[in-house]
Amino acid sequence: MQLPDTDEEGYLIDPLTWNEAIAGQIAEQENIQMGEDHWDAIRFMRQYYAEHQVAPDVRHVSKHLAERLGPASRNAIFELFPYGYVKQACKIAGMKRPRAWSTG
């Protein structure tokens, strides 16, 4: 399967072209082995995007994971996506690169 159009940094140009197969391909490119917690974060991000038409701030995703995994997991998002929320999680979730956020 070929990826839909991406920008020069590898973010999908149209988030509506995203599906889980595409997410898996992007995760492979980012050297992320997608596990249950990765998918939970990505699916939460997609649900948030569907409701608000904007990528969720990292604190929303962290709060979601903490509710599911417990308060000790408040930094789980950074363990799941070690090169950064925007650089990896947003890209795998099919979000456009948020303009005001760094890629770190």
From TrEMBL:
Its main location: cytoplasm. The keyword Cytoplasm applies. One of its GO terms (cellular component) is cytoplasm. It is found in: Cytoplasm. The keyword Nucleotide-binding does not apply. It comes from the Bacteria. Pfam families: DsrC. One of its GO terms (molecular function) is sulfur carrier activity. Keywords: Cytoplasm. InterPro entries: DsrC-like_C (IPR042072), DsrC-like_dom_sf (IPR025526), DsrC-like_N (IPR043163), DsrC/TusE (IPR007453). GO terms for biological process: tRNA wobble position uridine thiolation. Belongs to the DsrC/TusE family. This is Sulfur relay protein, TusE/DsrC/DsvC family. It comes from Sideroxydans lithotrophicus (strain ES-1).
